[in-house]
């Protein structure tokens, strides 16, 4: 009998990536908890799906906030940053090393940061895409797990491109989670990209 990977999702916004995770749960993974830094539509999606939610409001004392966040997250098999728009502190990242992943709307290492889609369009690249990567202490600098390319159409606007990237991002993440397994020696999650 297969035991699903137990996931915690970190969210801050509308929750479209979270919705894809919730809609595609199967024998491979299950979303057990959704944590946010504020009330947001993503939490409503989780509640509607019957998933436990927690809010850990951001504090000026970031070390204290990191500790409260870690206490709230507990000990999942994997943490997915699903539109979580806060930089995670060093202690949090180190605690969940190898079990903390993020998606990014570009083919890293190109165009890291919060404006990846805009930056790719301004630079004039013809291909961008989506990256799933481990979170480290930098901004979008962790080891890459998987990537999928998205061709930029001539004259395409930022919002149109971003929506097409999000569709690829959702498919890529769900595909990876369905292939994931725990390495019981290291307690890290291993992914097998298609």
Summarize the structure.
The protein is of the alpha/beta class. It has helices spanning 16-23, 41-48, 62-73, 90-95, 116-123, 158-179; strands at residues 5-11, 29-36, 52-55, 78-81, 100-104, 127-134, 144-151, 181-183, 188-190.
Describe what you observe in this structure.
- This protein has helices at 16-23, 41-48, 62-73, 90-95, 116-123, 158-179, and strands at residues 5-11, 29-36, 52-55, 78-81, 100-104, 127-134, 144-151, 181-183, 188-190.
- The chain has six helices and nine strands.
- The strands form two sheets. Strands 3-2-1-4-5-6-7 form a seven-stranded mixed beta sheet, with helices on both faces. Strands 8-9 form a two-stranded antiparallel ribbon.
- The model has no long low-confidence stretch (mean pLDDT 94).
- By secondary structure, the protein is of the alpha/beta class.
């Amino acid at each position: 009998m297969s035991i699903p990977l137990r996931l915690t999702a970190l969210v801050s916004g509308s929750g479209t990536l979270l919705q894809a995770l919730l809609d595609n749960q199967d024998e491979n993974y299950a979303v057990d908890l959704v944590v946010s830094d504020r009330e947001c539509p993503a939490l409503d999606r989780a509640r509607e799906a019957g998933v436990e939610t927690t809010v850990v409001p951001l504090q000026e004392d970031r070390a204290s906030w990191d500790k409260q966040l870690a206490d709230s997250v507990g000990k999942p098999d994997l943490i997915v940053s699903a539109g979580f728009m806060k930089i995670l502190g060093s202690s949090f990242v180190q605690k969940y090393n190898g079990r903390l992943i993020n998606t990014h709307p570009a083919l890293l290492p190109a165009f890291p940061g919060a404006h990846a889609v805009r930056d790719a369009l301004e630079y004039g690249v013809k291909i961008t895409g989506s990256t799933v990567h481990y979170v480290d202490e930098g901004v979008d600098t962790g080891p890459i797990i998987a990537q999928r390319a998205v061709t930029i159409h001539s004259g395409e606007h930022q919002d149109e491109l971003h929506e097409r990237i999000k569709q690829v991002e959702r498919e890529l993440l769900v595909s990876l989670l369905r292939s994931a397994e725990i390495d019981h020696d290291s307690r890290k999650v291993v992914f097998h990209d298609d």
